Amino acid sequence: MPDTLTKDAPAPAVEAATPAPDKARSLWGHAWRDLRRNPYFIVSALLIVLLLVITAWPGLFTGASPRRADLANHYLGEPNWGHFFQTDWFGYDKQGRSIYARLIYGTRASVLVGISVTALVVFFGGLVGLVAGYFGGWVDAVLSRVIDIFLGIPFLLGAMVVMQAFTDRKWWMVSLALAFLGWTQIARVMRGSVITVKQADYVQAAKALGASTPRIMLRHILPNALAPVIVVATIALGTYITAEATLSYLGLGLSDPAVSWGLDISQGADNLRNAPHTLMAPAVMLSICVLAFIMLGEAVRNALDPKLR
Amino acid sequence: MAELDKPGGGPNDQPADAVPETPSLTKVEQVDAATDESAIAVIDRPAERGEPILQVRNLVKHFPLTQGIVFKRQVGAVRAVDGVSFDLHQGETLGIVGESGCGKSTVAKLLMKLEEPTSGEIFYKGEDIARLSGRALKAVRRNIQMVFQDPYTSLNPRMTVGDIIGEPFEIHPEVAPKGDRRRKVQEFLETVGLNPEHINRYPHQFSGGQRQRIGIARGLALNPEIIICDEPVSALDVSIQAQVINLMEKLQDEFTLSYLFIAHDLSVVRHISDRIGVMYLGRMAEIGTDRQIYDHPTHPYTQALLSAVPVPDPDVREDRERIILTGDVPSPANPPSGCRFRTRCFKAQDKCAEEEPLLAVPAVFSGSDSPANHESACHFAEEKSVLAG
């Protein structure tokens, strides 16, 4: 992302100088031009890129193993700023494991769960919402009742019950469990949004032109109905990351040989009074990660709405 | 009002070269058609007026009223359109007026097949399009297009003007070859008086009048024969209304279009229409040429409507009789028996509640040369000039 930023840098300057001739640009083209100038987008995108790089190659950021336990370092809390990029940046936890190394390696579980759950939920929930909202009638009646049934299951309690079924828990199992229970939120938002957009005159106009149902849905309804979904999805992404941490905290998500912020928060919370640093580092990291996704969502939503331009 | 009035009112008054293939749709023929059997409704025997391009017969649209959530029980129906018949001739403008909720817009939606009619026929060049679907319907859509009321919601805010006007070509690729489309879109922008350079702008970057021009360009793109205009200028400033109306008249001459012009502004309708139909509560109350309707109305509802038109001359205004209707429009879910207008009519008698007046030339006027000789759905039709000046 920083590469493209610098490469494209001269382009906006030229346009600013000669605004008269409109260049052919798609909706996303316009959105991209706006995003490049939005400081919230730049900050959140850089953070997310950093998180993604950490997810992909944690070894680049630390030489230490997150699982190497040296009880001699038990609760060693003093950050040693002299050893930059060393193992003891944020001190050590109860087992004498490097908190910094665990933060770096724990990123993978959180980011993968957050992104995969959001992707699954937006795809399936969005599809259900689009179909229910567009076709209405008995299709809507059936799908809405299914949504109601799923909404009746408490999110976390349901996820706990589903996770009970797995013994050797992997991150994708957590993702499936969360997506299985989380899609209804997006489906409802999408359905409402589609029903509003469906009544717009431009949809009627497209029908009057003889546009096919897929064309009306994809070109007219989806782009105009997507904005609230993007907002809800990015906020939900944060809650999915939190939910993964919560499940791990409760002992129903990832378990100990695995490395996850939720596990570390869980262990840190047990010893909050005598070793607060063991809780702080993963908790702050989780907050930053969630914040970055929410900020990105907000920026994308604003850029995708030509009326706000 | 007077300056909006066209000299004669009939389509024959238009420049002869403008509508070359229009069969003569004069009032003379209309009179002929109605003279022999006066009391027969037009719905039974379509009046022959040359060659109608669109014939609507007994069009009905009832929206069901249901109760219950899971097991829906029909408890009634809103009779939005309840047996409307009219003809639209090539190159002519048929105005439809009526107050809010009388079913004007539903008629437009039915003609566009945006709503399925409950019953009735819509003949486009002799083919009943009310029964068409799929490919055959898509082919007919090329010839009947629509201009919407609100230019702020009728254009997709996430598409550029080029995409909006170009979409008809994507849906009907046979109309314009791919490489040609952008140029064609720019041509249409120019035709409706917009800068072709603005092809990549978004709708929100235009004013209301400009947006309505974009909507008109989209309607024109497929080169249709009929354009249904659902209150196309109601949402615009008065100064802009005139521009858009004049543009529409220019385009009518240029492309030999037939307009079905729906509005509630009587002066706008008079300015653009050759013939006018007055609707009340899902029915046609009176139909005739603009002179017949405006200067010689025979239906009391039309007379009441016209008496509400503001008159700029204070002296004339003093003398004029105002017909002030009392009460509200009855619910279309439960219309009155007999004549639908009887609850608010100043002439209503017992007969009106018992017997439904058919839309036909009233017996009193049939055979006469008077302009009052036109179809009017009233038992006690009589001429009454309510427009001053």
Structure keywords:
heterodimer, A: 309 residues, mainly alpha, MetI-like fold, 70% helix, elongated, B: 389 residues, alpha/beta, seven-stranded mixed β-sheet, four-stranded antiparallel β-sheet, 20% strand, globular, disordered N terminus
Extract low-pLDDT stretches of chain B.
1-49
Oligomeric form: heterodimer
The number of helical runs of chain B is: 12
Apparent shape of chain B: globular
Mean of residue pLDDT of chain B? 81
Question: What global shape of chain A is seen?
Answer: elongated
The CATH topology of chain A: MetI-like fold
Estimated helix fraction of chain B: 25-40%
Largest interface: A-B, 27 and 36 residues
Count of structural domains of chain A: 1
**Reading side by side through the largest sheet of chain B, how are the strands ordered?**
6-7-8-3-9-10-11
Radius of gyration of chain A: 23 Å
Order of helices and strands of chain A: HHHHHHHHHHHH
- What class would the helix/strand composition of chain A place it in? mainly alpha
Radius of gyration of chain B, taken over Cα atoms and rounded to an integer in Å: 21 Å
Q: How much helix is in the residues of chain A?
A: 55-70%
Q: Give the biggest sheet of chain B.
A: 7 strands, mixed
Mean pLDDT across all residues of chain A, rounded?
80
Any idea what the CATH architecture of chain A is?
A: Orthogonal Bundle
Name of the CATH class of chain A? Mainly Alpha
**Helix and strand element order of chain B:** HEEEHEEHEHHHEHEHEEHHHHE
